[in-house]
Amino acid sequence: MTTENASSLRPALAAVNARAASFEPYLYALLRITFAVILFTHGLPKVLRTSHGSMADPMAGSINLIQNVMGLPFAAQLAFLVMLLETAGALMLATGLGTRLIALLVTLEMVAISYALGPTWPWIDRGIEFPVLMGVLALYIVARGGGAYSLDSRLRPRGLNI
């Protein structure tokens, strides 16, 4: 490519970059909401005690994972908290309310799930690629906050970025 071609391409690239950047607040809201919907689809079967994927009873599966795989006490109570995080917390993430706190809790949940599932990366049932990806996305949401289209942005005092 000649210098002349490159210099004529710069304004076009700058225009594309500016246009793409103008969509960022909407796309971040879409990312946050999509993340919340996916999380919710894992909490709702626990609430309803209905099958989900290969699990006949996801709540019983969570209790088993916490008690027998992770060896933690109060498995039923911890599974209940996981269910609340994946339902009420997901709704809070979707609306952007308490975004950083909820996303931090989801990050910790995904770290625990990844640890419990072990260091396997199969592209079939029981691999850790899903919780690793969800954990990294949750960590990004912790850093980014609710964004422009969130209840957090509407409720926080001016100049305070929480």
Descriptive overview:
The protein is an all-alpha fold. The chain has one domain (31-155). It is 73% helix and 0% strand. It has 7 helices and no strands. The chain has helices spanning 3-22, 24-48, 58-69, 75-95, 99-117, 129-144, 151-155. The longest helix is centred in the N-terminal third of the chain and has 25 residues, at 24-48. 22% of the residues are buried. The mean pLDDT is 89.
Concise account of the structure shown:
The chain has 162 residues and is mainly alpha-helical. The chain has helices spanning 3-22, 24-48, 58-69, 75-95, 99-117, 129-144, 151-155. Its main location: membrane.
Question: What's the topology here?
Answer:
Elements: H1 3-22, H2 24-48, H3 58-69, H4 75-95, H5 99-117, H6 129-144, H7 151-155
Helix pairs in contact: 2-4, 3-4, 4-5, 5-6
Largest sheet: none
Tally of contiguous helical segments: 7
Helix content estimate: over 70%
Ranges where pLDDT stays below 50 over 5 or more residues in a row are none
SSE succession: HHHHHHH
How many independent structural domains?
A: 1
Q: How large is the share of residues in beta strands?
A: under 5%
Structural class, by secondary structure, is mainly alpha
Count of extended strands: 0
3D shape: elongated
Which tags fit this structure?
162 residues; mainly alpha
